[in-house]
Specification:
The strands form four sheets. Strands 1, 2, 3, 4, 5, 6, 9 and 10 form an eight-stranded antiparallel beta sheet that branches. This protein has a two-stranded antiparallel sheet with strand order 7-8. It has a two-stranded antiparallel ribbon with strand order 11-12. It has about 230 residues and is mostly beta strands. Helices cover about 15% and strands about 35% of the residues. Strand 4 and strand 5 form a beta hairpin. It has a domain of about 160 residues: Pnp Oxidase, Chain A (Roll), CATH 2.30.110.10. The structure holds flavin mononucleotide. The site of flavin mononucleotide has 24 residues, from strand 3, helix 1 and helix 2.
Amino acid sequence: MLTEPTLGQHCRQGKVDPPNPFCQGVCDPFSRAKDINMQHHIQSVALDRAGRLINHGPTVLVSARHDGVENVMSVAWCCGLDFDPPKLTVVLDKIAQTRILIERSGQFVVQVPTIDQVVLTNTLGTTSLHDDPGKLAHSGAPLFEIPGHDMPFVGGCAAWLACRVIPEPHVQNEYDLFVAEVTAAWADDRVFRNGRWHFETADPRFRTIHHVAGGHFYAIGEARNASDP
Ligand SMILES: Cc1cc2nc3c(=O)[nH]c(=O)nc-3n(C[C@H](O)[C@H](O)[C@H](O)COP(=O)(O)O)c2cc1C
């Protein structure tokens, strides 16, 4: 049963303690809804199209939860691996606290942030739960739930991929590389629908971001067809 947000209460940046789970204040700029049922633009994506959500090489946010602890980190090294069933890889350094949650829970979410979230993405990649137990609250990351998936999802992104780790202990330990199967996917239908991206016609704030180095990002550029002269 969903509860309407309580007006005038902000859960981020320590404005309300304990946090209001239905915050709709200015401190939650991306999303007012804490449940996918209230996020009307998020549509399910067929698994045979899920690979397209990351095929253009965006910097992503990786989130996980274990034993009541949840966290989000930025990841530039996310790569598609297979179509059917869809698989991907992410590189998760041993210093990342999110990696520990993923190793213990065996699952994570890859979400594709937009240019509107470039500061959030940089913050989640330059702060650690190890140093700041309030990392998520301080970052302002607007989390929501998708029933049946016990993981935190970051609101305001363009796409979300629920992933289950395919254990490869040697590869994980030696190369920090995690292989995962995509078990479900969703996208904001204002920028991804009918199995493809629509960056050309979507609001520019939905452009995905691509990290180069040192907090320097590009937003995705114009479309070109290889078949056009
Ligand atoms: C844009 C950006 C991209 C990043 N890409 C990766 C990556 O691909 N793999 C990785 O292990 N860390 C990457 N990082 C660093 C982690 O996000 C960083 O270590 C983060 O603080 C981990 O948070 P946690 O310890 O709370 O999990 C990236 C950071 C930024 C800012």
